[in-house]
Amino acid sequence: MSRNALWVAAASVLVGVVVLGLKTMAWWVTGSVALLSDALESIINVAASLGALVALHVSSRPADANHQFGHYKAEYLSAVVEGVLVILAALTILREAYNGLMDPRLPDQPFTGMLFNGAATVLNGTWCWVLLRVGKAHRSPALVADAKHLFSDVVTSVGVLVGFVLVPLTGWPQLDPLIAGLVALNVLWMGWGLMRESVAGLMDEAAPPEVVAHIRQLVSSHAEGALEVHDLRTRHAGRMTFVQFHMVVPDQMTVAAAHAICDRIETAFAEEMKDAILTIHVEPEAEAQHHGVVVV
């Protein structure tokens, strides 16, 4: 994991604290149930950003005697925790929305509250875009999960702002908690999706079809001298993709020649898929299965 990604994760904590301050001020001047719910979600955002930072730090550690394949899955654990926190935030918002429906009232100073909340929303939306770009560039589940978490916060804030526009126009105070409740349901759905994706990573889900197709093309193009490659398997662990396959070579081929083919394939992967770890099992011609990757 590059230092750039770690710095972005650390900056997320600072951005979360600033956004929390802005939303707390918006709630304080208005007394709005929806803004209180929005501020509560931002508290969880700060905690989630801290979790992502810790996960990135742990995943960047080199392999050791107890973790011989590295610490890459720490990012998935962070993403699962973030999913749980998003769901907790949604349930908290639903509770506050229910309390608001039981005791509805019009917000105070709605324009001032909109300014504070609007500034927080713009900051969150901008940082969400930065996190998503860096997370995808570094193939970091923790940063991508943090970006999705922030996006759920942006959706919440937009819903709250819509409510703030409609409540004074309609004079209907129940609209404030109703908007908060609807947004909470959307946040709940996003949290479930985030947890589902993270658990798939912990369960060693295979690489996406387009990545597997690229792997097959790399092997086929750089395994000249071999006969075939079969039992190609992939799995993800954080930003890393583990690739393993059986490579069949002619019976008369020397160990040195077979090793040279493996070196050529590994060099190609190092140039085009830097975050891939290969395991190649060399087999004699009798083990050919006549399926899988036909070497060109």
From TrEMBL:
Segments crossing the lipid bilayer: 31-56, 76-94, 114-132, 153-172, 178-195
Bilayer topology term: Multi-pass membrane protein
Keyword vocabulary terms for this entry: Membrane, Transmembrane, Transmembrane helix, Transport
UniProt entry tagged with the keyword Metal-binding: no
Cell membrane among keywords: no
Pfam families: Cation_efflux, ZT_dimer
Span of the signal peptide: none
Identification of the protein by name: Cation diffusion facilitator family transporter
